[in-house]
Fold:
Amino acid sequence: MPSFESMRYREFRFYWVSAVLVFFDHGMANVALGWFVLELTDSAWWVSVAVAMRGLPMFFLTIPAGVIADRWDRRKLLILTQSTGAVSALVFATLVATDVATVAMALVYATVLGTTNALSLPARQAVIPMLVPHEHLHNAIVTGTMARTSSLLIGPVFAGVLIGWWGTDVSFGAQAGFLVVSTLLLIPVRSAARRVVDRAADAKISLFGELAEPLQFLRANRPLLVIVVLLVNMGLFMGGPVQALMSVLVRDEMGATAKGFGLALGVMSLGTLITSLFLTSTAQMRNKGGYFAMSLVGGAASFAMIGQSPTLNTALAFFFALGVFSGFFQAMSQSLLQSHTPEALMGRVIGVNMQASLGTIPLGALLVGVMASLWDPSTAAAAAAGACMTISVVALIAFPSFRRLS
Structure:
C-alpha cells in the first residue's frame, strides 16, 4: 500500500506543492510549445528543433548548475529561475495573442525555458535530502516523482483543453500564473536555504576541480556509472524521440486533435502515477538496478508499439504502459543515485544525472527528426526503441553489481 512518511514534514509539504505546480507548467509547455510550432510550420523537423532548443541547455548547463547548487542558496536559486520562467511565459503569451510570434521567437522561448530548467533542476532535487531524514529519503524521492507525474497527468490534458477552446496564448499565460504561485510557496521552505558546504570561501578549490569531483566519484562506483550510461541511452533513444515524435504520431498517423494529444499524455502520466504510488512503500526493495534496466526495455517496447498503432484508441493502452515503465526508471534512477551519493557531492552528481537523462534529449530529438524525414515517423520510433532496448539488455546482463544495486 502507498506510504507517505515524508509528508509529515511541513517544509517538504510546501516544497512538494510547489513542485507540483512547476511540473504542471512543464506538462502544459510540452503540449503548447510543440503544438504551436506544428501548427505554424506543419513540419516534424521544426518540432524536433524546438524540442532540441529547449533541451540543449540541459546538456551544457546542468553540471555547472550542480556546482551552483552545492555552493549557493538553493531556495533563492529556485525562486530566481522560476520567476524568470514566469516572465518569459507571460511575454510569449502576449506575442502569440497579438499574432506577432514566429518560429524564431518560439525557439528563443524554448531556449529560455530550457535554461531556467537546467539551472533549477539540480537544486530542486538536491533540496530533498535537506527536508527529510535519511531513512525517509527514498519515500521523499518517490513522492517527489509523484509531484512530477501527477502534474503531468493533468497538465497536458489542461493545456489541450485550453488550446482547443481558447488557443495557445491562453495556455502560455496560464503557465506563467502557475509559476508565480509555485515561487511564493517556496518562501516558507527555509531549510533549503542553508548551504551544504561553503566551498566558495576556499580559494584552493577551483571550478574545474569541483566539476571533476562528481566524475571521479562515479568512475570509482561502477554500478552508479552504469546508471548514468543508461540515462544517456534513455535520453538519446527514448526521451528525445518521444518528445519529438509524439505530437506527429498522434496528429498525422492517428488523425487526432490537440485534445487527443493531451489525453494521450495524460493517460501516460496516469500510468506513471500508479507506479509511483506503488513505489512509495518499497524502500527495502532488492535489485533496484535490475528493475531500472528492465523498465527501460518495457518503456522502449511500448513506444515502438505506439508508433505502429493505427488509431489513438489503439495506442492509449501503450501510452499507459509507457507511463508505468517510465515511473519505474525515473524513481529508481533518482533513488539509487541520491541514496549512494555523499551530501557534499549531491548537487553535482544530480547535475551529471540531469545532463545524462535530459541533456541528451535534444540530441535524440534531432537524430530521430532526421530519421523521420528520411523514412517515416513510425519507422523512426521503432528504430530508436530498438537501440534503447538493446543497450539496456546488454547492461542488465554484463554488470551484475549494477543489477543487484539496492
Observations:
- Residues 10-41 form the longest helix (32 residues).
